[in-house]
Specification:
Blueprint lengths: L18 E2 L11 E2 L19 E9 L10 H10 L1 E9 H12 L7 E3 L5 H9 L7 H7 L1 H9 L1 H7 L9 E5 L9 E5 H6 L8 H13 L25 H8 L8 E4 L2 E4 L4 H15 L12 H6 L10 E4 L2 H5 L7 E3 L20 E8 L6 H9 L4 H9 L6 E3 L5 E3 L8 H8 L5 E3 L3 H4 L5 H14 L15 H28 L2 H15 L1 H16 L5
Parallel strand pairs: 3-4, 3-5, 6-15
Antiparallel strand pairs: 1-2, 5-12, 6-12, 7-10, 7-11, 8-9, 13-14
């Protein structure tokens, strides 16, 4: 078990005159003589250096965040370690416009913190020597992270490139809530008005929508009710669980799932076709909002807050955000309906809780050993909690059991807004175990955890595609065909439901997918998956 307090010592000893080289022939980075010893580098304990060492950090930050140097936690880091940081982090969009020029220049920061780099950019800048390989530094100077990676080979695999190197450090938050973002809600008040119970099966749900369309449940004498609304290709408003219920086909935004170790494309199966065909019938019956295929989040969320209640059922992350607190009592979570085959199938999304790109060390850095020791402190679970939510005494406090819990935000400020102001992010790991023994989830997150556990986890129909880091060669193979495939699927899904004509066009659609190389793309994902499950080894 990991310690719940900051590690202050390691048993590792720095060899004098340590030379850091990129292992393997794929990296073009030159030999870098580590100069940490010049500042009185300590291999254990604090401070990390006896004489103040200055480093430059660049990367992204939240638009609401102040300059990082003004953050209380960041100031504490400098006091503890004697490493002074000149922060050059920028809002996401601003950094995105400048990063390519920066990476190609000789004016690199020593560290990228919240790197803002895509997988392709990480691999490209790793193999050309712009980013240092980190695996040897981790082994020698990051005992906390090393212990985690030993215990969690899946995290190691997620941050390991196909050439075997680690170029960035991870950020992990294991709440277990991202796999099921599309919560289905229904207007219970309307169910009472039309004399129907809470639906348990897909047929009962269809009957409820039909009653909403025909029986004026809002009582205003107008046919203004919207029985069902959703958004396609959104984060949390997709009707994927209806596809599973109507056709037995688990689905997600990527149209890519894993079952029994096999990567599957979802949108060319007979089950998918049957589900779309049935949804076309629903649309013809007036049960589906015609704007479901075109509306943005602003238009979508406004429908739950109209002066007269008009929304019968919807998909969204949180019901309160859609309908407002004053109407939330009118709605209930439906969960997973029993489908046409008598099964309850909860589609699992590919949203990842293990992220890479939290921090990278560049070729400009003359002090990688000291830098890695600095980063390793952030992986202690107590420090990770503070990096993620803010400092103890500001956003977090210990309860009677020693568990860190949220201090309520001041009136007029949400916890999310406060978090952006006081939490720098960066490399951190909060595991599922840590959420039980170190830091309690935020109240809203805890509530969602409980709902996922009750309504969705028992009916998981597939595994998520894991956080595989594709190589540049693999990205080159799939990027263009994958974009065309996803565009075709999205366009046809909408047109088939609106026109109720999937059967007429199905064969030509499947041929188009074949011509676009759907099997080849799936094969690339399978090979990458196999590499990931073997621990990241090629």
């Amino acid at each position: 078990m990991r310690s719940h307090r900051l590690l202050t010592s390691t048993s590792l000893v720095l060899a004098a005159g340590l030379a850091l080289t990129a292992c393997g022939s794929s990296s073009a980075s030159p030999v870098t003589e580590d100069q940490s010893e010049e500042f009185g580098f300590n291999t254990e304990g604090l401070p990390i250096v006896d004489e103040t060492l200055s480093l430059t950090f660049g990367g992204t930050k939240s638009a609401l965040a102040p300059e990082y140097s003004e953050m209380e936690l960041v100031q504490q880091w400098e006091e503890d370690t004697n490493i002074a940081i000149e922060w050059e982090n920028l809002p996401d969009q601003v950094f995105a416009e400048k990063k390519n020029l920066m990476l190609a220049s000789d004016n690199l920061p020593d560290v990228l913190f919240n790197t803002g780099l895509s997988d392709a950019e990480v691999v490209t800048n790793g193999t050309n020597g712009t980013l240092l390989p980190l695996e040897d530094l981790i082994a020698e100077h990051a005992p906390t992270l090393s212990a985690i990676l030993e215990e969690r080979p899946d995290i190691r695999a997620a941050i390991t490139a196909s050439d075997g190197h680690i170029y960035t450090l991870p950020s992990v938050e294991e709440l277990g809530i991202l796999a099921h973002p599309n919560f289905l809600f229904i207007n219970k008040t309307w169910l009472d008005a039309v004399g129907l119970p809470m639906p348990e099966t897909i047929d009962e749900y269809h009957a409820a929508l039909k009653a909403f369309a025909e029986e004026d449940p809002n009582g205003n004498g107008q046919a203004d009710e919207i029985p069902l609304s959703f958004r396609t290709d959104s984060f949390a408003a997709n009707p994927h669980d209806l596809i599973a219920a109507l056709g037995g086909q688990p689905e997600n935004n990527d149209h890519r799932i894993v079952r029994d170790g096999t990567v599957e494309f979802t949108a060319n199966t007979d089950g998918y076709r049957r589900a779309v065909d049935e949804l076309g019938d629903w649309y013809a019956e007036g049960l589906i909002d015609p704007e479901s295929f075109s509306q943005d989040d602003v238009a979508y969320l406004s429908k739950g807050k109209s002066e007269t209640p008009i929304l019968g059922s919807f998909f969204w992350w949180e019901g309160k955000e859609m309908v407002g607190e004053e109407r939330m009592d009118d709605y209930e979570l439906v969960g997973i309906l029993e489908g046409v085959d008598g099964e309850r199938l909860a589609s699992v999304a590919n949203n990842q809780e293990i992220s890479r790109g939290a921090m990278a060390i560049t070729r400009a850095n003359k002090y990688p050993a000291a830098t890695m020791r600095w980063a390793d402190r952030l992986f202690d679970p107590v420090m990770s909690a503070q990096s993620n939510w803010g400092p103890i005494g500001v956003t977090l406090e210990e309860d009677e059991d020693g568990l860190l819990v949220q201090i309520p935000a001041e009136e007029g400020e949400s916890e999310g807004e406060r978090r952006q102001r006081v939490a720098p992010g960066g490399p951190k790991i909060t595991t599922a175990e840590d959420f039980e023994t170190v830091v309690a989830p935020e109240p809203r997150a805890k509530e969602r955890q409980e709902l996922v556990e009750e309504f969705y986890t028992p009916h998981r129909a597939n595994d998520a595609y894991p956080p595989v880091m594709l190589s540049n060669e693999e990205l080159d193979q799939i990027s263009f065909p994958n974009a065309d495939i996803n565009t075709l699927v999205l366009e046809k899904f909408a047109s088939w439901i609106v026109n109720d004509n999937v059967d007429e066009e199905w064969d030509s659609y499947v041929q188009q997918l074949d011509q676009l190389g759907v099997d080849d793309v799936t094969g690339v994902y399978q090979e990458a998956y196999d590499r990931f499950t073997s621990g990241g080894e090629s």
